[in-house]
Amino acid sequence: MTAELTDSTLTPTLRRGVWPKAIPLLVLAGLLAYSNSFTKAFILDDVVWITGHPHIDDARKYMQGSNRPLMQASILLNHRFGKFNPVGYHALNLAVHILAGLTLYSLVRRVLLQPRFAGRYDDSAPFLAFAIALLWLVHPLQTQAVTYIIQRCESMMGLFFLLTFYAWLRGATGGSLFWYPIAVASYLLSAWSKEVAVALPPLLIIFDRIFLATSWRELVRKRWMPYLAIFAIWAMLLEPSFRVAQGGGTDAGVGFGIESATPRQYLMTEAGVILHYLRLSVWPVGQALDYFDWPIAKSFAEVWPQFLVVTGLFLTSVALLFLRPAAGFVGFWFFAILAPTSSVMPIIDPAFEHRMYLSLASVAVLAVFGVRAVLLAAGLPERRRAIVSASLLAVAATALMVLTFARNETYSTGITAYEHAATARPNNPRPLGSLAAHYLNTAEYDKADYYIQQAEALPDPYGLAPRQRAPWLMVTGKLAESEKLQQQIIERSIYHHHGGPTMYKNLAWTRMALGKYDGAAEILRELIKRQANVAEYHIALAAALFATGRVDEARAAAAEAVRLNPDIAHASAIEARAYAVAPESPSSPFFVPRAQWTAAAACMADGDRD
After folding, report:
1. Interval 166-218: pLDDT, tens
2. For 210, which DSSP code?
3. CB-based contact 28:146 (threshold 8 Å)
4. How far is CA 416 from CA 428, 486, 561, in A?
5. What's the pLDDT score for residue 108?
6. Using an 8 Å Cβ cutoff, are 524 and 553 in contact?
7. How far is residue 258's CA from residue 602's CA, in Å, rounded to a whole number?
C-alpha cells in the first residue's frame, strides 16, 4: 500500500492526499501498543487525586478551586461509573491518546497539502503524516502520559492543543466559519487540562503566518476576532500562573520563590534535562518514572557543554524561522511547548517524561523527513524508495511498540513501579520512600525499615526519608521520637508537597496518644486553617477537644464535620473499629487511643452526648 502512495499509478483519490487505511491502522497500532495497560495500578499522584482524595464522592467539593477542571471532571466521570476499578481510567487515557494521534495525522497531512508547498507533497502527504503520527503514537516516551493515570492532564492538554491548530487550519482554508469557534473552544479545553497550554497562542500566530497567511496584514484582517478570543483565554491562563510563580507556588512546588533552585540555576539544569529528553526520543532505553534526584546546576561550569548544545539548537530553530520557516517552526514547536516547564520558572521536579508529550512530535517530524531526504539523495527509483520507506517505518514502529508494551509492565503494581524507579535512578530517595509507605500500610515494618534506611543513606534535601521514618516510629510505639521528628518536618517542609496534610494529621494523633491533647488540637486547627473544607480534620479536632474536656467546642467541631460530610460519623465509627482490631495489636500505644477518640468523635457527630 505504501508503494501505491508514491507510485505514478496513484488513483485520483489518493492524488488528492487521502489514504483511507491510515486512520484504522493508527487506531490498531495504539491499541496494540497499550493492550496491556488497562489493569495497571494507581500510583503516586493517582492516590492523591483518586483513591485517597477525601472528596472523590462529592463532585462539588472535588472541583472546588480547581485549576485543571477538565482533568478533574474526567476523573469524576470515571469514578462515577467504575469507582476504583482502573480499567475505565486507562481506557479513557488511551482513547485520549489515540484521538490525539489521529488529530496529529490529520493536521500534518493538511499542512503538507497547503499551497505554500506548491504540490510537492500531494502524493506523499498521507504516508508522511501517517509515519509521523505512528512513531509519535507508539513511542515509549509517551507511556507516562498514558499509563500513569493522573498524567492524562498532559495528554488531554495535548489533544485539544492539536485540535485547536487543526480547526484553525480548516477555518483558514475555506472551511466553515464554525471552525474558529471550535478552535477557541478547543483551546479553552486545553487550558482547563493543564497550564502548559500557555504556549499555544505564540505558536498559533507563527503557524498561521508560515502556513496560512501571505502577510501579517492578511492574518490580522481575516482572523482578528478569533485571535481576540484566543488571547482572552491566554490572559485567563497567564494571570493565575504568574500569581503562583510570584508567590512561590508552594502548593504545587512551582514558582520563583521555591527553595529548589533560582531561575538561573533551573535554566542551566534544564539544558541537561532537554538533552536527556532528546536522547530518550531517539534511543528510548533507560526510562524512569521519577527524576526527583536530578541534580540542580549551581554554576555554569557544571553544565556548559549541555547548555551550549541546547542554546545552539534553539538559536538554529529561531534562525530557520526566517530562512526556512517550515523547518524552523518544527524546532520552535519543540522548545515553545517545553518552555513552561523547562526554562526559567523553577519546579521542584526538574524532569518528567510526560512533559515531552507534544514536543515529541517535532522529533518525529525531523526523523521522517530526515529519512526521506536521505532516500531522495540516494537516487533510488520511486517504487523502491517507497518499499524502503515502508520497511524502515515498520521496523521502527514495531520496535517502539515492543518497548512501549514492556514499559507498561512496570506499572503493573505500585511495588513494580517503585522498584523499577528505584533501579533506574538509584540515588533517588522518593521511590524508596514510596516502597516504605507501601510496606507501612501493609504492616510489614521490617521491609519498611529496610527501604527507609536505603533512603536515609542518600542525599535528601527535602527530607523525604524522615517523612517515612516518622510514621514508622509512630506505629512501632516510639511516640516521643516520632513526635519530635514530625515537628521538625513540619517546620521545614513545603506544605502540601510530599504529604503535608498527612504529616499534620499524624502529628495530631501522635500527640493524642502521648496525652498531649491541647497540642493535638493546636496542630489540627493549623491544618484546618489551610484546608477548612475537609470533614476528617474537623472530626479529629472534635476528638482532641473532647479529650481535654471542652465538650461544647468538640460538639461544634463535630457539627461542622457533619455539615461538610453527613456520612462522617459512620465513616469515623468504621475507622475506630479498624484501629481497635489493627494487625499491630490493640495494645499499641498509638492505635488504642486513636480508636478510642475516633469512636468518641463518631458518637458526638451522631449526636450521642454520652
Report:
1. 999 999 998 788 999 999 999 999 999 999 999 999 999 999 999 999 999 99
2. I
3. no
4. 16, 29, 38
5. 97
6. no
7. 40
Higher pLDDT, residue 534 or 450: 450
Measured CA to CA, the distance from residue 484 to residue 473 in angstroms comes to: 10
**Cell 520558572, residue?**
345
Q: Cα dist. 370→330, 365, 384, 536, 549 in Å?
A: 13, 8, 17, 58, 77
448 and 436 Cβ atoms separated by less than 8 Å: yes
Check if the beta carbon of residue 131 is closer than 8 Å to that of residue 86: no
- Decide: helix, strand or coil at residue 256: coil
CA pair distance 430, 340, nearest whole angstrom: 24
Cell triple for residue 448?
Answer: 519498611
Place of cell 460519623: 569
Distance between CA atoms of residues 50 and 300, nearest Å: 41
Asked if 51 and 532 count as a contact pair (C-beta separation under 8 A), the reply is: no
- Could you tell me if 460 and 436 are in contact, meaning their C-beta atoms sit under 8 angstroms apart? no
Mean pLDDT of 348-366: 96
Per-residue cell: 141: 516516551
Coil, strand or helix at 606: coil
Close Cβ partners of 449 (under 8 Å, ≥ 6 residues apart): 436, 472
Residue 515 three-state SS: coil
Quickly state the pLDDT bin for 259 (edges 50, 70, 90).
low
Q: Are 244 and 198 in contact (CB under 8 A)?
A: no
Q: Is the pLDDT of residue 261 over 70?
A: yes
Cα(155)–Cα(144) distance, rounded to whole angstroms? 10
Q: Classify the C-alpha dihedral 590-596-602-604 as positive or negative.
A: negative
Whether 473 and 482 have beta carbons less than 8 Å apart is answered as: yes
Q: 254 pairs with which residues across the strands? A: 347
